[in-house]
Amino acid sequence: MAAAAQLRPDIYLPTCPNAESIVRGVMKKALIREPRSVASVMRLQFHDCFVNESLEEVCPGLVSCADIIIMAARDAVALTGGPDWKVKLGRLDSLSPWLEESNEIMPSPRSNASYLIDLFNKFNLSVEDLVALSGTHSIGQARCFSIMFRLYNQSGTGRPDPAIEPKYRAKLNKLCPTNVDQNVTGDLDATPRVFDNQYFKDLVAGRGFLNSDQTLYTFTQTRSFVELFSKDQSVFFQAVVNGMLKLGDLQNNQPGEIRSNCRVVNNRGIKSLTLGGYQRS
Ligand code: HEM
After folding, report:
1. Which of 18, 79, 151, 266 has its CA 20 to 30 A from that of 214?
2. Is 47 labeled as catalytic in the residue annotation?
3. Matching CATH number, 107-244, of 3.40.50.720, 1.10.420.10, 3.30.70.3400, 3.40.50.1370
4. What separation in Å is there between the alpha carbon of 198 and the centre of ligand 1?
5. Are 158 and 215 a contacting pair, CB within 8 Å?
6. Catalytic residue among 36, 47, 143, 246
7. pLDDT tens digit string along 71-103?
């Protein structure tokens, strides 16, 4: 997660005025080349980091990776038919690798709604935020690996999750038989290339792919939001924008830097490491 900094929409106007249009252009090309790639990038807002070489060419060392992810995730939603919104920028990248941190907070696909409510609550994200943000699974895919337990041994019962609608379960069993290569992927909802409220309609019909998805309908506390979003796409869109903005506001208070390669922290001597990074002026 990025270091604390003052966030505002036009922060790159003086230094890299084309930052947002460059990110959107790269995402457009990615969508044409490989439709799933924008979903994978979007997941990064929750999780990880990637390199945007186009920005490095035009604005070397000026735009943080954390901000690129925030812009790219928004673009993934907007370019696949979802809402568009203004993002706040000015994050710095953390001075330590992100993987350990993000793995710690990354919820497992086995999670149930009550665990997810508590987890999101720790980050001041509400039950509505949880359901709306899970609605980003309206685009993209997941691996058989993430649902094998659900199909064959839910909670150690040796049985499938009873919440899966039988015809959908037959489909998933065919996609992910017990001897499958667990890297085989399936769609997270019935319209995996379109950002819409189909995901919620699927949950109501018992056709959620991940356990963490279907549990949002099984649990009473989250069910009313699933029902609401399944009936009214514009309410879902507003809620997901609110949730994404809140997610984007989460920061820790460590010093940061602008990484030149998003995958690794910048190279620096031990002395400057102990002094910490710089703060944006
Ligand atoms: C509520 C807790 C969440 C859980 C338990 C969860 C879990 C997962 C899992 C297990 C996968 C598939 C990984 C695989 O099998 O390869 C996945 C995919 C995905 N997640 Fe989540 N996720 C959650 C929230 C979010 C949020 C908040 C976002 C966006 C801000 C998000 C965006 C995505 C996207 C777009 C994909 C598809 C990626 C692709 O097609 O490559 N998820 N998620």
Report:
1. 79
2. yes
3. 1.10.420.10
4. 16
5. no
6. 47
7. 999 999 999 999 999 999 999 988 876 555 555
